[in-house]
Amino acid sequence: MGTLIKGGTVVTAVDTYHADVLFEGEQIVAIGLNIPTEKHGVVDASDAYVLPGGIDPHTHLDMPFGGTVTADDFETGTRGAAMGGTTTIVDFALHTRGDSLLNAVRTWHEKAAGKAVIDYAFHLTIADGRDETMAEISKMIREQGVNSFKVFMAYKHVLYVDDETIFKTLQACRDAGGLVQVHAENGDVIEVITKQALAQGKTEPKWHALTRPVECEGEATHRAIRLAEIAGAPLYVVHVSSAMAADAISDGRKRGLPIYGETCPQYLVCDFSDYERPNFEGAKYVLSPPIREKWNQGVLLRKLKNMELQSFGSDHCSFNLCGQKELGKNDFSKIPNGAPTIEDRLAILYEVGVNGGVLGINAFVALGSTNPAKLFGLFPRKGTIAVGSDADVVVWDPKATRTISAKAHHMNVDNNVFEGMTVTGRPRYVFSRGAMVADGEKFVGTKGAGKHVKSATFYPWQL
Ligand code: URP
Ligand code: ZN
Ligand code: ZN
């Protein structure tokens, strides 16, 4: 007996058509009209889209950061993801300076195994440019199925690495079939401005944004792209927050370079004024790069439409206001950076992009699923509706409406940066490798059912 998704409109990154979708076991086995219903459990997809499950290429679960550990672990974070229509995440395994990359991957396997409710893959961060670390990159790609490596130009004394390390990482990835990801903000300049602001008694959350001016992101994005150009390596710029950084990516692509860009839901709907909310509520928006002036939102959305930005990640990194964000009550630089966005990533893209009349439904699928799957070596097993692909399927009701709230969400955190926003379009059902994980507002998945998926080697022609 299989599961037959009946009466819906199948949408991939390129096609939209009426068809039924049958899965048996964990894979899609047939797509067609009038597939006989006998012998199968039938799921009603009338008046709904049948989409490939979302791929969230940027999450931080169970991650030590900012003097604390993220509020969501692999169980609660993936539960939120599943409820929002995401069926695979790619989480960052944190490398520790002086330690091996293998240890970082092993640590992240321990965090995820037995907890994740949907499938997961890993990126690695790079904490040092030692010869041993660089030599390990190709091993990680070939043996561990990690195809991407993130370097941080910001977070001085914590995750920051210098240009020498970035350049060596670019060369190593170029040679081994890896994709370098970059957090592009000038960490040296930010440190100077931050110290000066604090010395002047400027301690409120809004100073997080004011000490990380947009030029810091613009400069670092330009620099990273030039470093990639010199190295002859592809580059993926994570969490692009501003028109200035997005323009740098467009410039690189106009020069024919394999540069990719990702933006996130928070940059499409939040703006600088959120930092000025009373009662320390601005701390919810302390994430990096910071939320920018409102006019940037329209530019980022148009870049998504034009595929000048190709990927849409959540950068989910959740901290409670109570007990965690509060660490920076008297000093904005001590507020742990990040926000809970894994659950509402697709809803925001649909609301702002599709309902807003900017994105077509195929672009929605491409940005939220197919492109991340291609970039991170998961396609075509993930990221599309096709015979032989995993039965990671979302029945998406384009008319259903809900209001986002921390009281109702499924993440383990006391705040939501989209609080109060009403969105139209949400999953009716979500399937992970053929098993239902979301039935409307009810989570019906299983702790530990999610499996690790290896990423294939990166090739620039994939996207
Ligand atoms: O504020 C953020 N973005 N926290 C997560 C870490 C990162 O830089 O991606
Ligand atoms: Zn980052
Ligand atoms: Zn991040």
Description of the structure:
The protein has helices spanning 74-83, 101-112, 131-144, 163-176, 187-199, 206-210, 214-231, 243-254, 265-269, 295-305, 345-355, 361-375; strands at 3-6, 9-11, 16-18, 20-24, 27-32, 41-44, 49-52, 54-59, 64-65, 68-69, 86-93, 119-125, 148-152, 179-183, 235-237, 259-263, 311-312, 393-403, 422-432, 435-439, 442-443. The protein has 463 residues and is of the alpha/beta class. The protein has an eight-stranded parallel beta sheet. A seven-stranded mixed beta sheet has the order 3-2-7-18-19-20-21. α4 (163-176) crosses α7 (214-231) and α7 (214-231) runs parallel beside α8 (243-254). The radius of gyration is 21 Å and the shape is globular. The mean pLDDT is 98. Residues 58, 60, 239, 315, 317 line the site of one zinc ion (ZN). One zinc ion (ZN) is lined by residues 183, 238-239.
The gist of it:
By secondary structure, this protein is an alpha/beta fold. The protein has 12 helices and 21 strands.
Q: How much strand?
A: 15-25%
CATH superfamily of the largest domain: Metal-dependent hydrolases
Q: How widely separated are the two ends? A: 36 Å
Tally the helices.
12
CATH architectural category of the largest domain: Alpha-Beta Barrel
Task: Spell out the blueprint of helices and strands.
Elements: E1 3-6, E2 9-11, E3 16-18, E4 20-24, E5 27-32, E6 41-44, E7 49-52, E8 54-59, E9 64-65, E10 68-69, H1 74-83, E11 86-93, H2 101-112, E12 119-125, H3 131-144, E13 148-152, H4 163-176, E14 179-183, H5 187-199, H6 206-210, H7 214-231, E15 235-237, H8 243-254, E16 259-263, H9 265-269, H10 295-305, E17 311-312, H11 345-355, H12 361-375, E18 393-403, E19 422-432, E20 435-439, E21 442-443
Parallel strand pairs: 1-6, 2-7, 8-11, 11-12, 12-13, 13-14, 14-15, 15-16, 16-17
Antiparallel strand pairs: 1-4, 2-3, 4-5, 7-18, 9-10, 18-19, 19-20, 20-21
Bound molecules: N-(aminocarbonyl)-beta-alanine and zinc ion (2 copies).
